[in-house]
Write a structure and sequence with these properties.
It is a single chain. By secondary structure, the protein is mostly helical. It has helices at 2-12, 26-38, 41-57, 62-79, 82-96, 99-109, 112-138, 140-153. 16% of the residues are buried. It comes from Mucilaginibacter terrigena.
Length: 154
């Protein structure tokens, strides 16, 4: 669930400001911040960003890949770094969970099982992304045919 929010934030650069969200008290927002700390969201954010860049650069020609990565890293460091995004991320969590739920989740992420979940998330994320890619690639011809038929008929 954490990764869904992190990816959404990365892809769409959430513009929600914590100060402008109605019905979120300072203690509710603080509970969300505590969850982000307990869950290691800052490191996961960085790891997810790196994985996203690696995946995006896979289709870039080798002779342009280094420059592509430099530009993307510069852009991300300027507009999407953790320090800029953490308050918005806390606000997103505060919108989706009650203050008590946030506190309970923070407690969970400090347990051995919560720590293990954090350690396994990047691997699970990469493997699930690969499963999705394989599913599409395995049926790419069928998808292309469906698209041709759909657009030729109209």
């Amino acid at each position: 669930m954490k990764y869904k929010f992190l990816i959404i934030a990365l892809l769409f650069c959430a513009t929600v400001k914590a100060q402008t969200i109605p019905n979120i008290t300072p203690s509710h927002l603080k509970a969300a911040e505590e969850l982000l700390v307990a869950s290691g969201a800052d490191m996961q954010f960085k790891e997810t960003t790196a994985a996203m860049l690696k995946q995006l650069s896979a289709n870039v020609p080798e002779d342009k890949k280094q420059k592509f990565l430099e530009i993307m890293n510069s852009f991300i460091n300027k507009y999407m770094n953790w320090d800029l995004m953490k308050d918005q991320m806390a606000a997103l969590y505060a919108q989706e969970f009650t203050e008590k739920e946030l506190r309970d989740l923070a407690v969970f992420y400090r347990t051995p099982l919560g720590i293990k979940v954090n350690q396994k998330q990047p691997v699970l994320f990469q493997k699930s992304a690969l499963l999705g890619q394989q599913a599409v690639q395995g049926h790419q011809v069928e998808l292309q045919q469906m698209m041709r038929e759909a657009f030729n008929e109209k």
